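Reopening: Histidinol-phosphatase still failing for me.
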Amino acid sequence: MTEIDLQTKSDLIDTALALADAARGPTLAHFRADGLAADNKDAAGFDPVTAADREAEQAMRAVLAAQRPDDAILGEEYGHQPGSSGLTWVLDPVDGTRAFLSGTPTWGVLIAVGGEEGPVLGVIDQPFIGERFVGGFGEAWSEGPRGRSTLATRPPRGLDEAILFTTFPEVGSDAERAAFHDLAGRVRLTRYGLDCYAYALVAAGQVDLVVEAGLQAYDIQGPMAVIEAAGGIVTDWRGGPAKDGGRVLAAANPQIHAAALAVLSRAE
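Support: Ran it again with your exact input. Result attached.
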């Protein structure tokens, strides 16, 4: 991908914010609504999808068709749409659909844009709380009930002082689960269940580590861009690229990342 000029950067930020705005209506219309139904996308387990997921992605795709028609799109619900610009928008209309169904406001709308190298701009939006986390092009900020503030990750500390999050206690395979719980046994506090909101807390300087496995590109690219712009680091469990998902380690700084990586990299 060629260098992005200032005007294009401004346009991408404006478009990303417009996408987040567009997704708020459909998601809020269904959140905590009576009779909300979910289809199951996984016959072997439970991978729910609701009308909110589908309508929010449709609304975001409509914005892109009007404002950035030459860009490609990769969305969780409607797949890949090719483009000619070299840029791809990666969309997860409701990350944390289980939380959405449960009425807990820890789900979010995830938006990223970038090229083959990965995302250059990301958004984590929580419509019900009214919090938005944005990061890219050397800037990271949040907007919410307390107004706008700059995002910055936590400074270095030992694992024995760290806060660790993951969505499910049963992380990935047996080997992945063992590696995670080895790490969990070394930190001060381990918490579960926040989906994408945990990544927002890394960017906001509240949490040191998020560790997950089995992710898709649309699960991580938005959070990755926000965390990296706020001073953190996001890789796979061996220190390689995480833009395509899989095993993901998000850390507040290189030092805590290295300490966690030394434990997780033992997983087969």
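The mean pLDDT is 95. If you still see a failure, please send the error message rather than a screenshot.
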